[in-house]
Every structure is written in structure tokens, then in C-alpha cells.
Amino acid sequence: MFTGIITGVGRIAAAHDLGRSLQHGKRLTIEAPAGYLDDVGMGDSIALNGACMTVTALDAPRRQFTIDISAESLDKTAGLGAPGPINLEKALRAHDRLGGHIVAGHVDGIGTVTHFAETGESWELRVLAPQALGRYLAYKGSITVNGVSLTVNSIADGTDGTQVSINLIPHTVQNTALGSLTSGSRVNLEIDLIARYVERMLTSDPQQQKAMT
């Protein structure tokens, strides 16, 4: 479980194929900030651009760790198959503050940046989300973009998807990898976890639920 509050900006230093077919995934070597891995152990969960991954090898002195990502995960995410900057968040501990919102680290879809520019003292980020995710997005609701917990400022449904406008303060741009986005960038999106349960409660058949108990 995560909160969408980025705890470090790392870099995919290397991406090696685990096989020769499209059914094979990759092994990624991640460079982390100084001291970031001091409390990380083998098997720990770290979200990479919002996707929960497991640490499979650790080299703290060199500030590096390794994860294996499956072909399925590569197909359902963006920005995890090649070297470049990446948002990092360690798994939530029971006593941690919930500074963002409840994030599972499961990518629900890939969005496309349609606009990213300075507006006054802040930045406006517009993302076109897949049409299937539009029903879960709401004004002033929460969305995770590349692992960052953000607030929706406006939404506009269209035939090609749902346009989401988000305001980023300078601190967010400077302390996450979102600052490297440009128009056309593909980003990982995760909807608010609570929205999943609300939909289930509204669409499930109560009589069927009783029959199963």
C-alpha cells in the first residue's frame, strides 16, 4: 500500500531482456538517491512510477536495486522499459502519515499528456485518460499520475477519452519526475481505490450476494 507521496526520484540505469520472445519481461537496475536504500531489504515493495514492484537484488553502497518486471506489466504500464528518470515510493508502514490518498500501486490505464506548461506560479498538467476510466474521475477527486497523488481540477468527457486538468505546485515539479513530461508523454494512471468499491456496491446484485452466503 502507498500514499502517492514520492519519497525519491531515481533513474532506470539499465534494462535487460529476460528472454528473446515477447512473453519475456525485463530486469531493471534502478539508481536511487543517496541514503534511500538504507532501510530497504530484499523482497520489499517499491512503487516505480506508480507500479508496485519487488526488490530482487540490492547494492546499497552503489545506491542500486534490481527488480524483475513481467511482459504483462510492461504491456500495461508506461516508462518502465527503458533508461530514464522515475518516481520512487517505498511501501507504506502502519505508523506512517497518509499524506496523499490510498494507493494500491496497480496501474489502471495509460494516459497521454496533452498539455504541460507554466501558469502563473504553478504548472497545468492535462492528461487524456482512457474512456473506461472516465467514470471514476471526479472534480476535486484524487488520481495518481506516475505514482504521484494529485487532485483533479476539472474533467471533460469526449469520444476519445476523459481530459483531466491538474495543477502542480513548483515543489511537485521539482521533487518528482513529472517535470520531465512533455506533450505526448504516456503516463501511468491509478484511480481512487474507494471508487472501485463504490462501483461494486452500486452494480452488484444483492440477491446474488445472499445466494453465495
As an assembly, this protein is single chain
Cα distance spanning the termini: 29 Å
> What share of residues is helical?
10-25%
What is the fold-level CATH name, i.e. the topology of the largest domain? Answer: Elongation Factor Tu (Ef-tu), domain 3
- SSE pattern: EEEEEEHEEEEEEHEHH
Can you tell me the residue ranges where pLDDT is under 50 for at least 5 consecutive residues? none
How does the helix and strand content classify structurally? mainly beta
- Strand content of the residues, in percent? 35-45%
* CATH-scheme architecture of the largest domain: Beta Barrel
**Total beta strands:** 13
What's the CATH class label of the largest domain?
Answer: Mainly Beta
Mean pLDDT: 93
* Net shape: globular
Total of domains: 2
Tally of individual helices: 4
State Rg: 18 Å
The largest pleated sheet is described as: 7 strands, antiparallel
In order across it, which strands form the biggest sheet?
Answer: 4-3-7-1-2-6-5
Keywords:
single chain; 213 residues; mainly beta; Elongation Factor Tu (Ef-tu), domain 3; 2 domains; 7-stranded antiparallel beta sheet; 6-stranded antiparallel beta barrel; 4 helices; 13 strands; 14% helix; 41% strand
What report would you give on this structure?
It is built from 4 helices and 13 strands. With 213 residues, it is mainly beta. It has 2 domains: 8-90, Elongation Factor Tu (Ef-tu), domain 3 (Beta Barrel), CATH 2.40.30; 109-200, Elongation Factor Tu (Ef-tu), domain 3 (Beta Barrel), CATH 2.40.30. Strands 4-3-7-1-2-6-5 form a 7-stranded antiparallel beta sheet. A 6-stranded antiparallel beta barrel has the order 8-9-12-11-10-13. It starts with 7 loop residues before the first strand and ends with a helix.
